[in-house]
Structures are given as structure tokens and as C-alpha cells.
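Key result, reporting period 2: structure in, sequence out.
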């Protein structure tokens, strides 16, 4: 293993960080470094503010130049994993990929490695002289069993801006889902608050009146194709609640096909409680597995956003994954088969 090579970096203070301490400013820019390690480099004289060695209590102001000699390697990195990525778009600030079925967005709960974030860390490390200089910014996430378009940022300003865009509803997300039954309405809207199922810490959410901490939730939908006992639907969540589309389609009486939690047979009996609400449950036997598909038939099809740095309006589309495309093809073949 080669010795660590000191890396020199120069950054300029942004308006929103005007007046913060030097260590707080640097932690924003070098997100794979812990506060302790950044503070140690400041105390060692490795940081200069407008050419003058910074003190631990120095503050930075808009437009100032900060130079840092990264004399120690990043100490907060996740293991980089060489996992294939289906890249839809990439530039110095942003990368958009088509997340496959079965991949968790970031380390959590029972899935601490080989996540999308681990794959991104490896990909980013190929682009910099210092491994770990860039940290994947997971701004939004898809469930492990939901496939489709996912945007990840490369640096802190893009991460901050895109996070604000998501929080303020400036990002348009469109999903394709296959649901049970013949959905008669061509289009419509579900406006039901979503909260946690009462009775303990759980992954399950609900639209029922006894939901704990219910939050306003809104989903619009449009029928794309009908197959008699099934309907292909485009759903657009106007809010970002956990399991929102799955819950709202179930509330309409048309659950997502093979949804392990909210399907017609209910959730698995042995669903373990979670220690963290962001945890992903471990693999379990799906009581709602279907002859068409074994996991929830939900795919993030289109993502439309303003670029977090340039402001350009951008739209990305991910084709249906093989298992969901197969289910749709089977239903089309049945619908056109001679009676």
C-alpha cells in the first residue's frame, strides 16, 4: 500500500456560510472528514485564510479564499465497492443512475455494505487523486425493491441546493406501477395523510385515522393501460412520504402488485421491529408474491429537476427493469390472445 500523499485544495467561501468557524466551513466541503480530523489539521497549521495561517476559532466570510493541505486521509469514508452503475447522466456536480431492484440506497440497518452509496464512492474515487475526496450525497432514496431514476450529488453546494429543491417541491417524480384490479378512473388524486402504524416502532405506515404523527400527503395518478384484472398506472407523488404511492394505491382499493406490506394478504407475520426509521427490513418471504412478479411492481420512471448548480431544467427517464417489463408483456399477450 502506497503512503498517503498530501493533497492541496483551495475553496472559496459561499454566501450561506458567511461568518461560520473555519472548521465548520471545511467540514461542509470535505464531507468524508470528521470534525475531529479537520480541527486537528487546523491546529497543525495546515489551513490558511487569505494566505494567513488560520486559528481554530477563525471565522470565514463570503468571497474569502481558504487553502488547506490535507495532510491526513479522510476518516469517514464508506467502503468503496466496484459495483456496475447504469449511468443516465453525469457532470462535475451531479450523477443520475437507474438503481436496480434489490439495492439499498445507503448503509442502514441490516444493509451496511454493497449499497448504491458504496458503488458511488468507488466511482467517485476514480475521478480524484485523493480517494474519499468526494462523498456521495444521497438526496432522495428509493426502497430496496423499487427500481429507477436516482440522483446523487458530488459536492456540498449541489447537495444543499438539490435537497432544498426536493423539500420545496421543485422536483417532479413520476413512477410506473402495476396495480391489482381494473382502475376505472382514467386519472385522479389521493389526498390522505400518512403516519406510522400505532403500537410500536415499525417500518409500516398507514393512512388510517389512528396513524401516529400523520403528515399531509398527495399523489396524482393516470391510467396508462388496462389488462382487466390489472392496471398499469403512472403515479406522481406531490409530497415525499415513506411508502406514499404504495399506501395511496392501496387506499384506492388497488394495491401495488406483489407489495409485501400493503398487498391484499397484508404484511408478513414476522416483520421485525426496527431500531431506526430509515432502516430497510431484512429479506422476508413475501406473502403477496405474484405469478407475474415477485417484488413490488413499482419503478421510478422519470425525474425532472433544475440542475442544482446551473439551474438548467433537466429530465431523466429509466426504462422498466426486466422483471416488470416481463409482467407487462405477459399481460399484453393475454389481453390480445384469441378467446
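The corresponding designed sequence is given below.
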Amino acid at each position: 500500500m502506497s503512503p498517503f500523499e498530501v493533497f492541496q485544495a483551495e475553496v472559496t467561501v459561499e454566501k450561506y456560510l458567511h461568518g461560520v468557524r473555519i472548521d465548520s466551513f471545511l467540514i461542509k466541503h470535505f464531507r468524508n472528514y470528521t470534525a475531529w480530523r479537520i480541527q486537528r489539521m487546523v491546529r497543525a497549521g495546515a489551513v490558511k485564510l487569505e494566505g494567513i495561517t488560520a486559528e481554530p476559532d477563525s471565522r470565514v466570510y463570503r468571497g474569502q479564499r481558504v487553502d488547506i493541505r490535507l495532510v491526513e486521509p479522510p476518516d469517514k469514508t464508506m467502503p468503496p465497492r466496484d459495483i456496475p452503475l447504469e449511468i443516465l447522466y453525469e457532470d462535475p456536480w451531479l450523477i443520475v443512475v437507474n438503481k436496480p431492484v434489490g439495492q439499498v440506497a445507503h448503509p442502514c440497518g441490516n444493509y451496511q455494505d454493497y449499497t448504491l452509496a458504496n458503488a458511488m464512492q468507488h466511482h467517485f474515487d476514480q475521478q480524484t487523486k485523493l480517494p474519499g475526496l468526494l462523498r456521495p450525497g444521497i438526496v432522495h432514496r428509493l426502497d430496496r425493491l423499487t427500481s429507477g431514476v436516482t440522483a446523487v450529488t458530488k459536492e456540498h453546494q449541489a447537495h444543499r441546493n438539490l435537497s432544498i429543491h426536493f423539500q420545496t417541491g421543485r422536483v417532479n417524480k413520476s413512477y410506473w406501477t402495476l396495480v391489482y384490479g381494473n382502475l376505472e378512473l382514467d386519472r385522479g388524486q389521493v389526498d390522505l395523510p400518512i403516519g406510522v402504524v400505532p403500537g410500536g416502532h415499525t417500518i409500516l405506515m398507514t393512512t388510517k385515522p389512528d396513524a401516529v404523527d400523520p403528515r399531509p400527503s398527495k399523489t396524482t395518478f393516470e391510467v396508462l393501460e388496462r389488462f382487466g384484472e390489472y392496471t398499469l398506472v403512472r403515479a406522481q407523488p406531490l409530497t415525499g412520504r415513506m411508502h406514499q404511492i404504495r399506501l395511496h394505491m392501496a387506499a384506492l382499493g388497488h394495491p401495488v402488485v406483489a407489495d409485501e406490506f400493503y398487498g391484499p394478504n397484508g404484511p408478513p407475520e414476522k416483520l421485525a421491529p426496527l431500531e431506526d426509521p430509515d432502516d430497510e427490513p431484512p429479506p422476508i418471504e413475501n406473502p403477496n408474491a405474484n405469478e407475474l412478479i415477485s417484488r413490488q411492481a413499482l419503478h421510478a420512471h422519470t425525474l425532472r429537476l433544475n440542475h442544482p448548480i446551473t439551474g438548467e431544467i433537466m429530465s431523466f427517464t429509466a426504462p422498466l427493469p426486466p422483471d416488470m417489463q416481463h409482467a407487462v408483456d405477459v399481460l399484453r399477450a393475454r389481453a390480445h390472445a384469441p378467446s
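The chain has six helices and 17 strands. Residues 90 and 96 are 6 Å apart (CA to CA). This case is discussed further under Risks and Mitigation.
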